[in-house]
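Audit log entry. Action: structure prediction of a protein-small molecule complex. Ligand: pyridoxal-5'-phosphate. The ligand was supplied as SMILES and no pocket hint was given, so placement is left entirely to the predictor. Protonation state taken as written. Sequence taken verbatim from the request; no trimming, no tag removal. Recorded inputs:
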Amino acid sequence: MIKLSDGRNLPLDMHKVKIIQRLPFPTVEQRLAAIREAGFNTFLLRTRDMFLDMLTDSGTNAQSDAQLAASMEADDAYAGSESFYKLAEAVREVFGCEYTLPVHQGRAAEHLIAKCFVKPGHVIPMNQHFTTTKAHFVMAGGTVEEICIDEAFNTDSSYSFKGNLDIEKLKSLIFKHGADKIPFIRMESTANLLGGQPFSMANLKEVRAIADQYKIPIIVDTSLIGDNAYMIKRREAGYENRTIGEIIHEIISMADLIYMSARKSCTSRGGLIATRKKEIYDLIAPLVPVYEGFLTYGGISTREIESMAVGLREMTDEYTAGCAADLIEYFVARLSEKGVPVVTPAGGVGAHIDAMRFLPHLDHPQYPAGALAAAIFICSGVRGMERGTVSMDRDIDGTELISELELVRLAVPRRVFTLSHIEYVVDRVAWLYNHREMIGGLTFEYEPEMLRFFLGRLKPVAAGKAASNWDEKLAQAFIRDFSLDM
Ligand SMILES: Cc1ncc(COP(=O)(O)O)c(C=O)c1O
């Protein structure tokens, strides 16, 4: 981020474009047809149906020339691949962990961790769940307890560390269940479903002190650790002159075990588990050849392992760690200027629109965040992601579990979008905000039992002044203000 002479902050790109992908620009009629075909679920859209893909920053980041060059040196040995040893060296350097286990992606790490540590009756406290994390821990018989601070649910806030874990809630959870029922405390850096909100180092230190007192291990999900470290540097007193590498080291020094999806901060694919403790490594390692692949490739291509090694080191560069956070800060500021209710302060992953404030005429069972994601797509060709009640699965007795937050995430993958893209999205979302009463709700037509947001299909329903064919009426209003081919 640099300051312009008029005082504004500009997220300055510290890279140049070398390879491009031509984007389609489907008309509003084509977008309406596509979202209907996709059952109003943005996961079921095809790339050819959209202009900007802001579904996720997972595996969609632009890789560096150094990452691509390294991938050409991949050693494809089934066992003993030199590419693995390069990754293990990078993990030692960046995380200070002696032991590394590659796995095919973040959820594979969650699967193995659940298999080793989560038993029926266990309770796992965490600053916030992630969808796949919760699914694995629950399938292993555990219960997930989200004990983020109350401020995390205030979407209009200036609190810097909404990803903090509530220390008093942690103490009462330990008191209630007993430390022997808690296999570990999980800290997610940054808390994705809260809007990519970071935790502070001070908070992690407090969690560590409690963990030491009750002899409970800490697991840190480091999928977004570059972003969390960057926000600590920008926001936490005492860290302004520390390097990203030093901050990452300090975070990991407080973890017993870490795992990550390398698809995010690390701008590659794959995932890994790492630890300083041999006894933990010895527990998990035998499962890797059973579920993933041999220990030196873990189910990922060795090209990706090479690019992960480079991506990990690049993540310690301040610009690389913060490039998404800076652009998101700009994006959030521009949406706020237009009056669009958006989660503040800006976090990682993307800009998060608060669908409850955007659509006050909708109630939770009408899935406001799902409806808003579909409406944004119709008006812009931009694919966002519902992060609200649709993303929660029903309770075992079939009761709808209402999400505290109803967000639409417009993800900002690293080094992919330009300011012109961001300005376009801001304009279309602002137009939609001025037509918000036209947006109705959604209801499920097909609802899978687990992780229903991936494959579920929905249809429009009336809500407030919006009719049940609100999707069509919205497209007509758009054509009146713009034109058919916009
Ligand atoms: C914080 C966090 N943990 C775990 C995962 C799961 O990782 P993957 O998608 O690589 O399986 C994700 C994915 O987005 C994530 O954001």
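Audit: result stored. The chain has two domains: 2-56+319-481, 65-317. Residues 58, 105-107, 130, 132-133, 188, 192, 221, 223-224, 261, 263, 271 surround pyridoxal-5'-phosphate (CB under 6 Å).
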